[in-house]
Specification:
With 345 residues, this protein is an all-alpha fold. Helices cover 78% and strands 0% of the residues. It contains nine helices and no strands. The N terminus and C terminus are likely disordered.
Length: 345
């Protein structure tokens, strides 16, 4: 068994690791509540109305996969914390890794397809291919979801084959530890790590291409709006700026999550080191902050959240959207200029 994959007994109890474990637990609760709320609200709407908007289908799939992924990550970290000397490719950790690989790949693909949907539906490019995609994309959402599940399942099986091969070599090998270690290292270096990089890099590249196009399109609108007399005071300009900030924050969180996955897969940081818990805190932070951004930026989800808060407090249930709608319908306000398709960002 490799020392790199075990924890010395003197390092089992570390106060700093305990502190980070508490932080991880707090971020876990935030992420579970956020993703669980999105899943529950859209799931109830889907169940009651028997239908759901294409964008919301992608959003509920992303929230549900992240909700399950949070529990898998929590189980993995608890097991590593309680059994620091366990072999990385033991049956228990392989079972957890099987679920983690599938949910992680599915989460990346759902995020990517959501960015593709936003880019095609909201961006104002006039290329014929782009206009054709804008017309056809809504009907492709079920195929997007099926392709995400299929690609995630295929990559998960390949990951499992590599993990199982390392575990079997560790059990059957009667050679020296150095030889056994070289077999494990070669499999990780030439099979698992390239496979992970391909699995994670492809959706990440598509994600950033779509986000860049969308930011470019929205940036042009903001620049044109700022050249007018009203400037920041126009509701349309404020909506563009809000969308830009949401997209930029989403891109930063996505990039941080991707880099954390790469560093974890590279085995640069051993599981017993303090840096291991730091990077896992970064992963949890990214997964906890984004559902909050989705809740605050999605008008329908924000309305449900505000109504539930008002009902608990016993106050009149008047949301910001309802107040804005009343203001827009007031005399002297041109409601046609306030229409903007960013209601789901």
């Amino acid at each position: 068994m490799s020392r790199e994959h075990t924890v010395p007994d003197s390092l089992v109890i570390d106060q700093k690791a305990v502190v980070f474990a508490i932080i991880l637990l707090f971020l876990f609760l935030v992420a579970v509540l956020g993703n669980g709320f999105i899943t529950a609200v859209l799931g109830m709407e889907w169940l009651l109305r028997r239908t759901l908007l294409p964008c919301d289908k992608l959003l509920i799939s992303l929230a549900a996969s992240r909700f399950c992924l949070q529990w898998v990550l929590l189980c993995r970290n608890i097991y590593i914390f309680l059994h620091p000397t366990a072999f990385l490719y033991s049956p228990v950790l392989q079972f957890i890794a099987f679920q983690w690989d599938f949910l992680n790949a599915a989460t990346l693909w759902f995020s990517t397809w959501l960015s593709v949907f936003y880019c095609v539906k909201i961006a104002t490019f006039t290329h014929p291919v782009f206009l054709w995609l804008k017309h056809k994309l809504s009907g492709w959402v079920p195929w997007m979801l099926l392709s995400s599940v299929g690609l995630s399942s295929f990559s998960t099986i390949l990951f499992f084959i590599g993990n199982q091969r390392i575990y079997q070599n560790n059990l059957r090998s009667n050679l020296l530890n150095v030889t056994r270690e070289s077999i494990r290292s070669s499999c990780e270096k030439f099979y698992l790590f390239p496979l992970k990089m391909v699995t994670w890099t492809v959706p990440t590249a598509v994600f950033f291409i779509c986000v860049t196009l969308l930011i470019t399109s929205l940036g042009r609108h903001v620049k044109k709006s700022l050249l007018t007399i009203s400037g920041f005071q126009e509701p349309r300009t404020q909506a563009h700026i809000k969308a830009l900030l949401t997209l930029i924050s989403f891109a930063i969180l996505f990039l941080s999550y991707f880099l954390s996955l790469v560093l974890s897969a590279a085995r640069i940081i051993p599981s017993w080191a303090l840096r291991f818990w730091v990077w896992h805190t970064v992963i949890y932070l990214c997964m906890a902050v984004h559902p909050i951004i989705l809740l605050l930026s999605n008008s329908r989800l924000r309305a449900v959240l505000q109504k539930s808060c008002f009902l608990r407090c016993g106050a009149p249930c008047i949301t910001v959207e309802e107040k804005s709608r009343r203001d827009f319908n007031a005399p002297g306000v041109d409601t046609k200029r306030n229409n903007f398709p960013l209601c789901h960002i």
